[in-house]
Amino acid sequence: MQHGGQGGGVRGPGMGNCGNFHGGFSSGIRGRGKAEGKEWMPVTKLGRLVKDMKIKSLEEIYLFSLPIKESEIIDFCLGASLKNEVFKIMPVQKQTCTSQCTRFKAFVAIRDYNGHIGLGVKCSKEVATAICRAIILAKLSIVPVCRGYWGNKIGKPHIVPCKVTGHCNSVLVHLILMPRGTGIVSAPVPKKPLMMAGIDDCYTSARGCTATLGNFAKASFDAISKIYRYLTPDHWKETRTQAPAVATT
Amino acid sequence: MAAVLKPVLLGLRDAPVHGSPSGPGAWNASKLGGIPDALPTVAAPRPVCQRCGQPLALVVQVYCPLEGSAFHRLLHVFACACPGCSTGGSRSWKVFRSQCLQVPEREAQDAQTQENSLAAEDWCEGADDWGSDTEEAPSPQLTLDFGNDASSAKDVDWTARLQDLRLQDAVLGAAHPVPPGEQTALSPGLPLFLPYYICVADEDEYMDFVNLDHAHSLLRDYQQREGIAMDQLLSQSLSNDGDEKYEKTVIKSGNQTFYKFMKRIAGCQEQILRYSWSGEPLFLTCPTSEVTELPACSQCGGRRIFEFQLMPALVSMLKSANLGLSVEFGTILVYTCEKSCWPQIIRPHGRILYYTRRPR
């Protein structure tokens, strides 16, 4: 029979063993393995607000520059209109003392046909895992795209509203606006993200080591995401809004 | 990563609790929400918030006897559900640990002896069978406890003596002394969350679940478009030499710790509790100094070790009958005394450390 003594005299629990956490009156074994249609359980407060439909669109989140940490938020807001596309898969190698270790780097671009675009890059030992993780990263990096007109405001917006420059390490990418009908004049690598963003006419100018595909793609993506950071005259007027977290408490 | 990872048990929400069960069936069960059940010899804790003075609501009750120990062990986690205190940090949270000696088994009946020896040695195995019985019939280990409590006059005397001790002693700490008869009575104005049982699963069962079908279809599209096959991909590596390098993922929003947290729970998103005695907690954000330097146990001066943590999925599961009650947290880490000390004179134990971590 064991007595609970005081302080150090207590016979301690099995050191190094696990404690024992019993379940209660459990109604059967939980479903294990693949669960079809698993419900999303938000981890962050923003996730909870989105799930409860207190925040209805991504634009409200962008307005306050709230960091989006869960990719399910994007799924919830944009849902079925999201399309993924594998940009490029390339093997990369790391030299170890014994041999070379090969991993696959996947570039995945994601877009919805309504002015949102994202780019994800992930390395992994298997291609499928790399693609899967790159999709999540692409969702986390979704940015809105603003398009404008070159001359008369006829028809739909088709170009970047102003000259922008994006850079990633040594690569610089300039996007220059052009009249309708020019098409995208660029190397094949930035052409993909520009087409996905819905930009129809653009000149590009690149500088730096553009042979590095990763940097080149990221630089063009960076250029696209800088569009909204540019303060155009129609944004000069002051507006007052309330942050979603404050508004809903 | 040379250290062997300790096994982690996950707590998942189960069936709702009906009525107000009492007796060993109540304090033997882990549940979320509801009224705290107390061990037979200990008063149920009724703490108040340090910030606002309101009574705290029960968040989780965990029945977790230690392997090889002769004590029933119950942990209660309380939180303040007032809107003002929900972001209050660790001051609006309280954790209580109570223990009670398992009444020794009689050796009169052989069958009972066998069952008892099984219980003493194989507590961990029993945990896996817990869930396989139907809802109505109590599981085998529970009947053992019933047998212990009711079988002999000697046992009852022992329990009664312990109860006498409790009634005579002054109860310290913030818990109000509640005589056993009133334990199930609801005092008006006590904040309450809807109670559910918690069932237990092993983390390993959920670890390898990743759905790669979509990735494979994308890969097929890519191969079709570019017109190359998988083996050609590999051979490309030999031709171009180090233009592209391995890239460490840099996440724009959030940090690396959070990304790892999300990856780890991706297999089982509905987990509300991670139990790992003396294991490593899964941090939500980079741990601050208050977590890495833990104060020692206030009762025995021993080291404190990690026992379990509450996960963010619990926040959306804590619903109350009257709206307005909510708790907000990232994750709550509970550290308890390594020796699980319990004094000779039985008092409810308070002040086990708790930390809250909240992502912005």
TrEMBL record, chain A:
Coiled coil: none annotated. SUPFAM superfamilies: dsRNA-binding domain-like (SSF54768), Ribosomal protein S5 domain 2-like (SSF54211). GO terms for cellular component: cytosolic small ribosomal subunit. Keywords: Ribonucleoprotein, Ribosomal protein. InterPro entries: Ribosomal_Su5_D2-typ_SF, Ribosomal_uS5, Ribosomal_uS5_C, Ribosomal_uS5_euk/arc, Ribosomal_uS5_N, Ribsml_uS5_D2-typ_fold_subgr. GO terms for molecular function: RNA binding; structural constituent of ribosome. The keyword Mitochondrion does not apply. It comes from the Eukaryota. GO terms for biological process: translation. Residues 82-145 form the S5 DRBM domain. Belongs to the universal ribosomal protein uS5 family. Component of the small ribosomal subunit. Interacts with zinc finger protein ZNF277 (via zinc-finger domains); the interaction is direct; the interaction is extra-ribosomal. Interaction with ZNF277 competes with the binding of RPS2 to protein arginine methyltransferase PRMT3. This is Small ribosomal subunit protein uS5. It comes from Rhinopithecus bieti (Black snub-nosed monkey).
TrEMBL record, chain B:
Residues 125-136 have a biased composition (Acidic residues). GO terms for biological process: apoptotic process. It comes from the Eukaryota. Residues 256-342 form the Programmed cell death protein 2 C-terminal domain. GO terms for cellular component: cytoplasm. Residues 125-148 are annotated as: Disordered. This is Programmed cell death 2 like. It comes from Rhinopithecus bieti.
